[in-house]
Backbone:
């Protein structure tokens, strides 16, 4: 099928046949009129850790 639909997700999802797709990407509504919080996290490197983050750090 390989189609892209642009519109209100509730309206469009109701038109799709059940079990007829492998992936649906739904972008959340960002312009809701509500104040959005922006949180910044400070991370600390753990020399004994076993994970590699972005940029190899």
Residues:
């Amino acid at each position: 099928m390989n189609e892209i639909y642009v519109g209100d997700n509730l309206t469009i999802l109701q038109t799709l046949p059940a079990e007829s797709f492998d992936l649906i990407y739904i972008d959340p509504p960002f312009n809701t009129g509500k104040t959005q919080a922006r949180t910044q996290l400070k991370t600390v490197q753990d020399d004994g850790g076993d994970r590699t983050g972005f940029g190899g750090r």
Notes: The chain has one helix and no strands. Residues 10 and 18 are 14 Å apart (CA to CA). The mean pLDDT is 80. The longest helix spans residues 9-13.
